[in-house]
Amino acid sequence: MRHATTSLVIATLLGLGAATAIAQPAGYTGPSSAPKPAAAQAGYAGPSSVQLMTVKQLLDAGKDDQHARLQGRIVSHDGGDRYTFEDATGRITVEIDDDDFPAGQSVSAQQRVELLGEFDKGLRKTEFEVDRLTLIQ
């Protein structure tokens, strides 16, 4: 009986250790109020036919629900899943879910990224909803 109890304790401790390893923070590491949990992510990583645009082009001529790609930096975390994205032409609020950050990689305010997503142009707010975030080397 003692052997079974010891095995159960060891299995429980190993399980807790694995849960702790999974819960390590990851994602955006620039100005923020809270770290992001790591998330497993897989998917297509090849070329895209979605148009690469600047923030200015998207704000000036973008249409609601238009798919686009942006390249630049995430310069701040604005709370929840809202961030400020910047390129050489301007800034836009972006919505990035935790699982859209690259698994196991941190993203700093200095790191260049490519965002693939959809432009949300409304009467009260304009933002870019991110489907995929890729680090640019």
UniProtKB/TrEMBL annotation:
<dbReference type="Pfam" id="PF04076">
    <property type="entry name" value="BOF"/>
</dbReference>
<dbReference type="InterPro" id="IPR036700">
    <property type="entry name" value="BOBF_sf"/>
</dbReference>
<keyword id="KW-0732">Signal</keyword>
<dbReference type="InterPro" id="IPR005220">
    <property type="entry name" value="CarO-like"/>
</dbReference>
<protein>
    <submittedName>
        <fullName>NirD/YgiW/YdeI family stress tolerance protein</fullName>
    </submittedName>
</protein>
<feature type="signal peptide">
    <location>
        <begin position="1"/>
        <end position="23"/>
    </location>
</feature>
